[in-house]
Structures are given as C-alpha cells and as structure tokens.
Amino acid sequence: MDNRLRGFMRADEIFSENGGPIPLPPRFAQIKRSLIAGKETAIVDSWNRLLVALRAEIALIGVTKSDIIPTINFSELKDHARVSEFAAKLRRRGGAVIRNVIPPDQAQDWREETETYLADNPETRGWPTRDPHLFGIYWSPAQIKGRAHPNVLAAQRFLMGLWRSRNPNASVAVDLPVAYADRLRIRAPGDEFWHLNAHVDGGSVERWESDGYGNAGTYQRIWDGKWEDYDPWECSTRLKVTSDLYNGAGSCSMFRMFQGWLSMSDINPADGTLLLCPMLQLATAYFLLRPFFSPLNPSPEAANFLARENWSLDFMQTSIIQGAVPSYTQELNASLHPHLQFDKSLVRIPPVRPGDYVVWHPDMVYGVDRVPPSALPATIMYIPACPLTQTNALYLARQRKAFLLGQPSPDFGGGRGEISHLGRPGVQEVSDAGGEDGLRAMGLLPWEDREGRSPTVKALVGMANAILFPDQYDMV
After folding, report:
1. Measured between alpha carbons, how far is 228 from 265 in angstroms, rounded to an integer?
2. pLDDT tens for each residue of 302-335
3. Fewest CB atoms within 10 A around its CB: which of 381, 429, 440, 441?
4. Would the pLDDT of 2 be above 50?
5. 24-215-181 Cα angle (round to 5)
C-alpha cells in the first residue's frame, strides 16, 4: 500500500486538462481496426449523426442546467404516474436524486456518529495525509446503518428494476440488493485540491478490448454504426464483463448498476458538488468512437473545428485511445473530447439535503467540483446499488470476512483497517439496522427460495447460498 489509500487514483495524474493523447502499445491499433473492419461507412455515418445529436442535446442542457437532473421523493416511489415520468428521465439522463430516503434528522445523527467514530479512532487512515477527507473506513456505525436501512434497500430495488435484459435467462436478481462496502468522505471548505476532472469509472481501455467489455458485446451496437440502438440499461451484456484487466487502483469487483452516495449534510450546487454529463447514451457513444476520428484542421480556434466536415475517419488507425491508459479510469477533457463541450454539458446536481440518495449509471461521465472557501463541510457515504449475481456473491463472501474481522473492504488493499477501532459494529448492529434483508445484503443470512421466481433466479439464489454458506447448501 502506497502513501495513498488504495482504491483512489486520479486519472488526471496522467492526463492534464490540456494534455495530449498518450500512445499505447501497438496492439491497440489492431484492436481498433478489428472493431470497425468492414463497417467503415456505417461508422462514419453514425459519427456524423452523433455530432448533430450532441449539438442539439448540449443546447438543451445549456438552457436547463441542473434542472435537467431528475429528482423524486422516496415517498413517491409508489405513485405510478410520477414513477413513470421519473424513470423515463433517469434512463435518458443517466443520473438522479431520490430525496428523503432517510429522514433528515436521522441522517444528521449519522453524521455526528461518524465524527465521534473518527475522533475515538484517530489512527484511521485518510487521504491526503496532510488534511484527510477521504477516509479508509468501511464499518462505521453510520455506514452499517446506511447500507442495511430498509429505505435504502427499497430505493436500490426500485433503481435496479429500471434495467432490462434481452436475455430472459440472464443470471441476475435486481430485487436482491447486495451491499458493497465503500468509503466515506468529509469535504472541508476551500479544499481546492480535492476535485475530479470529468471521467468514467469501470476501466478504460477495457471498453475497446475483446477480453474486457467485448466479452458479451456490451457496446456492439455502437461498433456496428448503430449507436441509436445501443441500450445503456441492458444488463445481460454486462454480466461477463471484465472491467479491470490491469489491476487498476480504484477498480470495483462487483457489478454496480448504479454508483451513488447518501448525503448526511446540506450540499448546495455552488459549494462544490457532483458534476454530471446528463446525456448518457450520446456521451458513451462519443467517447467510444472518438479514437477513430481526427480533425482535418486541428486548431481548436478554427471556426469550423467542431463541424462534421472537419472530422474524418483515420485511414490508418493509431494506438491512441483518447483519455485511456491501462489501470486508470477513463479520463475526458475539452482537449481530447471537444464535442462534449464540458463548459456547457457538465452540470452540477441540484441541492442535496441530509438523507438524499444521489445515483448515476456506471458508464456516466462525471466529475467533482472545487470547493469554495465559503462552503460548509459536507459528509457523504458511498453506497452503490448492486444486484445479486454470481460475481457479486463471490465478492460478498470475501467482503463478509473483512467485515467480521474489521479489515478493509477487499477492493481497497490490506492493512489493519478497523480491527482495533472502538465502537465498530458487528452482526447484531446489522440486524438492528436492517433486519433479515439487511443481513442478507451483507451475506450474513441465506436468501429464501420464494415462490414465483424464475428457474434462473432460483438457481442463482441456490448458487449464492452455496457460495456464502457451503456448510448448509450444495452448489447447484
């Protein structure tokens, strides 16, 4: 473990805001050629359609700004008409805010508990070491309560239910949320060091590689020149994805249907907050196709720099994949991805209150804004939404062991973690916070074989129980 917390690596340590593309090993040129071989005309036509669509969408974002991010109150999730409207907007935009998932007073109590937990355990590792705000704790009382809370689990079931599958036999259960233990962040006012440029998690070059996202053809519609037919919410093509071929810091071993965090503070848009690029399908298609094209006039100051006629498919594909380097996240910026016009398309999320749950698609372009000196401290806990799958069950078995021993969550390196931390919760606290569903999400209680489940889900539940409780269940 180096002087940073493993599990956090800034892509802009490699790419500066105005940095140029970095050539990769020659095999990446062949990877690019093979993706579009025989489909060059379709790719060019799709690129031209994409640039037109981007221009129109960015104009809309420029007018609506933060209002384009959909919001809904947790109490409205049973209102069919309201949910239908919200779901359509979320699928188009890629991110949203669910308000009052936790009562504000309770969320504020969790913030105070967190401050007490850190004060009682001053040896807690944090990053950066000079003035930590990203803390390597995974099992604090607030985090245990947040992951297991019935409202959080209900919100996750609702969100994951928005995904769909072309394969009716896909081995995934969106109604069985699985907890992923991530970290906790307390942002201090005026900390301009802590910000993130626009990026996408879940690997970088893996999105172009046959052994990565190509395993199940996640982006095949885009490679066929039919980006309009690409469905970001199709889950069966993601179950066999390998998003980390290079042991990258910050990689997630679980399949997350949504990244997210639960706020324990008031966070105003001007106080340094999450930035989202709310055009999920278009932005994904663009950063995937961008490495195949170059400007005829490379001067960004040229009046027609962004025009379709100024961009052409490279006759000889190079090894460059703009913003991608093995073992790092996918970086995006104005120099490498000019048509995304981040000065207009990257917007702050709406105001967030204690108890609000902020979520976004795992392919979504996002960043974190700088914090002005006048901002108040902001405390959040990262809680993604993960379904039950075989891969997630295997990771959950490792994570459960770490929880019981007080060690760091498996994706975040070794060390003593919270082994000797005062006030660290145990199994009883998980049960108190979330009952049987909370225990199951943490891998502490088997899932029931309920009536009405499809044969595929029944087999998945049996497999997950055998992985987590081999002394009670046989592997199917």
Report:
1. 39
2. 999 999 999 999 999 999 999 999 999 999 999 9
3. 429
4. no
5. 85
pLDDT in tens, 372-409: 766 788 999 999 999 999 999 999 999 999 999 999 99
**Distance between CA 28 and CA 329 in Å, rounded?**
17
Tens of pLDDT, residue by residue over 149-200, are 999 999 999 999 999 999 999 999 999 999 999 999 998 776 666 678 999 9
- Main-chain phi, psi angles of 178, to 5 degrees: -120, 130
State yes or no: cis peptide before 128, omega within 30 of 0. Answer: yes
- Domain assignment present for 419: no
Burial class, 338, CB count within 10 angstroms (exposed 0-12 / middle 13-18 / buried 19+): middle
Residue 46 falls within a domain, yes or no? yes
Q: Is 211 part of any domain?
A: yes
- Contact in structure between 248 and 240 (CB atoms under 8 Å): no
Give the tokens for residue 68: 């384009």
Q: What torsion, rounded to 10 degrees, do the Cα atoms 303, 323, 15, 49 define?
A: 20
What pLDDT is recorded for position 36? 98
Count of the separate structural domains present in the chain: 1
Residue span of the structural domain in which 218 resides: 11-387
Residues across the chain: 476
In percent, how much of the chain has pLDDT > 90?
85
DSSP 274: E
Instruction: Give this prediction's pTM.
Output: 0.95
Helix, strand, coil proportions of the chain in percent (round to 5)?
A: 40, 15, 45
Average pLDDT, integer, range 358-371: 95
Count CB atoms within 10 A of the CB of residue 289.
23
> Helices in 94-249 by DSSP H: which ranges?
104-120, 141-148, 150-160, 220-223
DSSP 352: B
